[in-house]
Design a protein that fits this description.
The protein is α+β, with helices and mostly antiparallel strands and 859 residues long. The chain has 31 helices and 25 strands. It starts with a strand and ends in a 5-residue tail after the last strand.
Length: 859
């Protein structure tokens, strides 16, 4: 991808990113205007302004902005940070010009009507309520309040009193002050290679005007002068401790070496903190470290998630680990691993045009220079081990602020005392520091994608190959039938454990050695399990395929599954089960799944139960996988830039080891559903979770075709669901259709999280909307729009190697055919309005289930 930055006649800084052959494009506009520029009386206005830009212009009133984008299958959205706000449209390449007109009209000609402002206050307040319910968001806001100072100390969403009183004057003031040409970068990315394309785009852009104005002056990011301790309770199952330490400016030489040092401590499963706190005795479930840079300055974060009872031992072990790391120094391999992560991240970005463009836009928005990210990578490459180890010492000579989130049943006072002792140990540390062959196999080719082939290696062993020469990366997958559908109450969770354990060592090669090899080469290897399949996934740089493949093959055919890691994975699964009990959303859908699938295995928990996990042993895992490797059909999938001959050469040793096996007919278990149920589950939360749904057939059944179209109609910011219950009535922050379609059955419905005081109105609104569609169907115009929308979404959503691997692998494994994805799209294209109207009425006439999880409401 090539890019060019230019200033057009209207003085708009415009970045053109040319990606020849791309079917997708992205239009982005970045403003150096975020929450750090807000005054006390309008905290949250940057984020609220983001919302209000979507409320229409004179030429595109109301939801017409989103409607136009979603009609051609695009997606429009925005996000606000401390230092910037970004608005973007991801679009089929053929609609780049339309997207430019829509986005520039939206940001250049907003109306900010009073009639739109009032309900949007309610919408944002629901988002604020959601942030209170979210343990992670709530924890960050507490950390901001206790440790940050100045303009960065308040939440980006604002406060309840500011949100409920935002005015047109505040909107216009903030926009006029910061949304100017000096602070703006406009990005146009896609296939711009056709003759005259760029010239026409420039003419379109130059029709729009943004005001002149001064450059935003951001305050210096500062932490509070003295180390702080915050302890707060939350409805959670396990505790989270976050530490924050001052970091240098992004542009300094120290920024690169400190970032390397903090990532060596806590990035990846070979990091010091992960090894000592998670793998050794499983004191914690998460041990990570990272850096966040602001416009001026930054912060290092260390995050530990752990059972509360482990805190004394965990804090002692943390101090010991940091002390040893500083004393012994980080070795060259640890540092090389992180350097390679940075370098490979720039390559992976190029897999998707929007991610590459976001990287350039973020560089401008954060630091005013689209090339600053590349400059930072160069500084990373040139940083030596001595500089990194010196930076590690410097980090821990700064004050460390602590914020601890604990389950509500634990003592705040006791926790503070424990943290005070921990902080004293850190102060002691601080003081001490101050002192190739052609294929002979039968090959099937796709009728729709000339780059994909299906090779029958031997009976029951196949390979899907798709070449993608755009980036030097690859995805390699192995699929076998299995998953939840082959479980029962006694062995529930066995495939989840199997997918977790399959990479924990092979052929007596230790898990540590595998992780080290993977992280040094900026690659990943992991297991996965689903409803009807499980397997293995590797993602890496093409230059490392030969070296890494033995780990993939070894994990697949001869996994060790050591007992110590099985114990570790069981502990993590049990903790997840505990945490789910406090998660209202999970409880809502857990109840829905029980009704829709009853005694079918789909009703089981993906991770098992406390009782079933106890019965699963190392020998049962190994026996199950050994049996499957010997008898079940195996599908390997490769997507990457290597030629087929090279891929076959690499895979041949695995093919030789795998015996031929009989192909088996795919059979499905019958599902009995319970419908017509209304259930309330009491849960003390600000927001109440609502799901109103019906069962639907297995993948490929006609009803899923109609429900997919209905889901598309009800999705997006211009949908009648979004406009009615969110924009007009202000009942929620988000409302969305949920369409789950698996090999043996599924369900469809509407999910909404609404304030506990709005549940009755929200439930009525959902039911009335669905009843209108049941009675009237959809207008012909809406029906045709859905077709265009889905077609556009398909062009945008399938870009990376993993995207392509997914759309081919599961259908082939389940005997649906290599072109199942394309045939499904063709069915939608050929569907008539009359057939849709007839069938959607029948589908929606079923009895519905309503599940409500919250407080102060009874059905």
């Amino acid at each position: 991808m090539q890019y060019e930055l230019t200033k057009l006649k209207n003085n708009l800084n415009t970045l053109f990113v040319d990606s020849p052959g791309s079917t997708a494009g992205t239009i982005q506009i970045w403003f150096r205007a975020g929450s750090a520029l807000e005054k006390d009386d309008h905290e949250g206005i940057a984020h609220f302004l983001e919302h209000m830009f979507f409320k229409g212009t004179k030429t595109r009133p109301g939801a017409k902005i989103a409607h136009e984008v979603e009609t051609f299958g695009g997606e429009i959205n925005a996000f606000t940070s401390f230092d910037y706000t970004c608005y973007y449209i991801n679009t089929p390449n053929t609609r780049i010009a339309d997207s430019i007109n829509i986005l520039l009209d939206m940001v250049a000609n907003p109306e900010f009507k009073q009639e739109d402002l009032l309900p949007e206050r309610d919408v944002v307040f629901e988002e604020y309520r959601r942030s209170i319910d979210s343990p992670s968001q709530f924890a960050f806001s507490k950390l901001q309040n206790s440790a940050f100072s100045g303009a960065y100390a308040h939440p980006i969403l604002g406060r309840e009193d500011t949100i409920k009183n935002f005015s047109q004057e505040q909107l216009k003031f903030f926009r006029n002050a910061y949304y100017n040409l000096t602070n703006t970068l406009f990005i146009v990315a896609g296939d711009l290679s056709a003759k005259g394309t760029k010239e026409e785009i420039i003419k379109t852009i130059e029709k729009y005007k943004l005001p002149e104005g001064p450059e935003s002056s951001f305050p210096e990011f500062q932490l509070k002068k003295n180390s702080s301790i915050d302890v707060h309770q939350k409805e959670i199952g396990i505790a989270t401790l976050t530490m924050v330490i001052k970091a240098p400016h992004y542009s300094t030489s120290e920024a690169a070496s400190e970032d390397l040092a903090i990532n060596c401590l806590g990035f990846g499963e070979t990091s010091r903190l992960y090894n000592s706190l998670v793998l050794d005795k499983t004191l914690a479930s998460v041990a990570s470290a990272s850096t966040m840079f602001m416009a001026k300055g930054g912060a290092h974060f260390i995050r530990l998630v752990f059972p509360y009872k482990n805190m004394p031992e965990l804090l002692k072990k943390f101090t010991q680990t940091i002390t040893e790391a500083i004393k012994d120094g980080l070795d060259s391999n640890e540092i090389l691993k992180i350097k390679n992560q940075y370098l490979s991240s720039k390559i992976y970005e190029r897999e998707s045009i929007e991610s590459f463009s976001f990287s350039l836009g973020h560089s401008f928005a954060q630091n005013g220079d689209i090339r600053c990210d590349e400059d930072f990578i160069d500084r990373i490459k040139n940083t030596n081990a001595n500089a990194v180890n010196m930076s590690l010492k410097n980090i821990f000579t700064n004050n460390i602020h602590l914020s601890l989130q604990i389950p509500k049943e634990n003592s705040v006072d006791k926790s503070k005392k424990e943290l005070q002792k921990f902080q004293a140990s850190l102060e002691t540390l601080k003081k001490s520091l101050a002192t190739k062959a052609k294929s002979k196999h039968k090959i099937e080719r796709s009728k729709y994608d000339q780059q994909v082939q299906l090779l029958h290696i031997k009976p029951g062993v196949s390979l899907i190959y798709r070449q993608n020469t755009m980036t030097p990366t690859f995805v390699l997958q192995a699929y076998m039938r299995g998953g939840i559908t082959e479980e029962n109450t006694k062995n529930n969770g066995i495939h989840h454990l199997l997918s977790s354990m399959i990479t924990k060592g092979h052929n007596k090669v230790s898990y540590d050695k595998i992780k080290q090899d993977l992280e040094e080469k900026s690659s990943s290897l992991g297991g996965f399990s689903g409803k009807n399949a499980y397997g293995l996934l590797m993602h890496g740089l093409s230059e490392n395929l030969h070296d890494l493949f033995p780990h993939f093959a070894g994990a697949l055919t001869h996994p060790d599954m050591p007992l110590k890691y099985l114990k570790h994975e069981k502990q993590l699964a049990n903790r997840a089960l505990i945490n789910q009990k406090e998660d209202a959303v999970k409880q809502c859908f857990k109840e829905a799944i029980k009704l829709f699938f009853t005694s079918h295995p789909y009703a089981l928990s993906p991770i098992g139960t406390a009782a079933s996990l106890k019965t699963i042993t190392q020998s049962s895992l190994l026996a199950l996988h050994k049996k499957n490797i010997k008898n079940k059909e195996i599908l390997l999938t490769y997507c990457g830039d290597s030629p087929l001959e090279e891929v076959l050469e690499v895979l041949t040793p695995l093919f030789d080891e795998l015996p031929a096996r009989k192909t088996q007919k795919v059979t499905f278990k019958k599902i009995k559903t319970i419908v017509g149920v209304e259930k309330f589950i009491e849960f003390n939360r600000e927001q109440t979770q609502i799901f109103h749904g019906i069962p639907c057939g297995k993948t490929g059944s006609p009803e899923n075709l109609y429900l997919k179209m209905l889901s598309s109609h009800l999705s997006g910011q211009s949908s009648e669901l979004f406009v009615e219950v969110r924009d007009r009535l202000g009942l929620c922050y988000s409302a969305q259709p949920v369409h789950f379609a698996a090999m043996e059955g599924g369900y469809f419905g509407i999910y909404m999280a609404s304030g506990h005081d709005k549940v009755a109105a929200a439930t009525v609104a959902i039911k009335e909307l669905l009843e209108r569609i049941r009675v009237n169907g959809l207008a012909k115009e809406d029906f045709e729009r859905i077709k265009t929308m889905i077609k556009g979404q398909n062009l945008i959503n399938v870009q990376t190697n993993e995207d392509f691997a997914s759309i081919y692998s599961v259908p082939v494994l389940q005997a649906q055919g290599m072109d199942y994805y394309y045939k499904g799209n063709l069915e939608i294209e050929n569907l008539t309005h009359e057939a849709f109207q007839k069938n959607i009425k029948k589908i929606l006439s079923q009895k519905w289930n309503t599940i409500i999880v919250g407080r102060e409401y009874r059905i």
